[in-house]
Amino acid sequence: MQFLRTATPPRLAVLTLALALAGCTLPRSGPTAGEIRAGADLAENGIRIVTVDSAIARAARFDDPLGFGAEFLNANPVPADGISAGDRVSVTVWENVDTGLLAGVGQKVTALDEIQVDEQGQIFVPYVGLIPAAGRSPDALRLEITAALEDQTPDPQVEVRRLTGVGSTVSVIGGVGTQGVYPIEAPTRRLSGMLAQAGGVTIVPDVAQVKVERAGRTGRVWLQDLYDNPGNDIALRAGDRVIVEQDRRSFT
Q1: Cβ atoms within 10 A of the Cβ of 191, count?
Q2: So what's the pLDDT on residue 236?
Q3: Which of 71, 116, 63 minimizes the C-alpha distance to 91?
Q4: Do 127 and 147 fall into the same domain?
Q5: Which of 160, 168, 175, 235 fits a 20 to 30 Å CA distance from 185?
Q6: 95: nearest Cα among 164, 159, 12
Q7: Residue 82 and residue 137 in contact, taking contact as beta carbons nearer than 8 Å
């Protein structure tokens, strides 16, 4: 007995494959546009399709109620030349004698550079001792050093300058031109000035948020609200962290 092999006709193979696929349902991410429109046409569904234009977008817009608390808003700007623990100061003393208390023979000027303000906020000056410096201005410190030296050298002239240090600095990170640690100086005592010092915000203003962390507390505002409301341009404090982030919410 002989068995004959017969080839399946191409049309029959295609028909068989189509029937097999008809019983399978491919996964979909959601209804099609046609199905949505068909469902909206049924009155009992309570669904209405509208075209989203600029007016509809404004009416449907919802923004998180961000803002700074009273501890941020009520803080006054720190003095531009205020001294803090961790800062460095320089003290220069001119003496009106040939053999001075601090200066060497034939010299009348003594420069004490890079004096570190310790954790207790004090500095050490020879023949004066420890002096409280944190929270004071260079001029107030100058007057105290002068008064302490007057009993030991005639008519001393004293100059005190505050140098940059880690005591009055703010960290700026995130979506800015140049991340880093910046000193609080006259132009950077407020949030907007510090952001400008860091190279400005590199995130699109519509989705940019500015967060400030201070002593365990956090405040956050939209960048646009910082521009529109001067009250949000808060005064900064030593140790603040300024973080510029993008709002990553998405809507479908």
Answers
A1: 24
A2: 96
A3: 116
A4: yes
A5: 175
A6: 159
A7: yes
For every residue of 37-68, which 3-state class applies, written as one string? HHHHCCHHHCCCCCCCCHHHHHHHCCCCCCEC
User: Which of 163, 196, 217 corresponds to the end of one domain?
Assistant: 163
Residue range of the domain that includes 133: 88-163
Q: What are the DSSP calls for 186-229, one per residue? A: GGGSBHHHHHHHTT-B-S-GGGEEEEEEETTEEEEEEHHHHHH-
Interacting residues of 115 by C-beta distance below 8 A, sequence separation 6+:
88, 89, 90, 91, 123, 124, 125
Q: What is the pLDDT of residue 1?
A: 47
Q: What is the pLDDT of residue 186?
A: 87
Taking the whole predicted model, whether its pTM rises above 0.90 is answered as: no
> What is the pLDDT, as a whole number, of residue 71?
94
Inter-CA distances, 198 with 154, 163, 205, Å: 47, 20, 16
Number of domains in the chain: 2
Tokens of 57: 């977008």
- The whole-number mean pLDDT for each consecutive block of 10 residues of the chain, a chain of 252 residues, reads 51 55 61 70 65 66 78 89 88 89 85 92 95 93 95 93 82 97 92 97 93 96 94 94 87 52
Single-letter amino acid code for the residue at 177: G
Residue that finishes a domain, picked among 163, 198, 225: 163
pLDDT given at position 86: 87
Report how far residue 210's alpha carbon sits from residue 192's, in angstroms, rounded to the nearest whole number: 10
Amino acid identity of residue 35, one-letter, is E
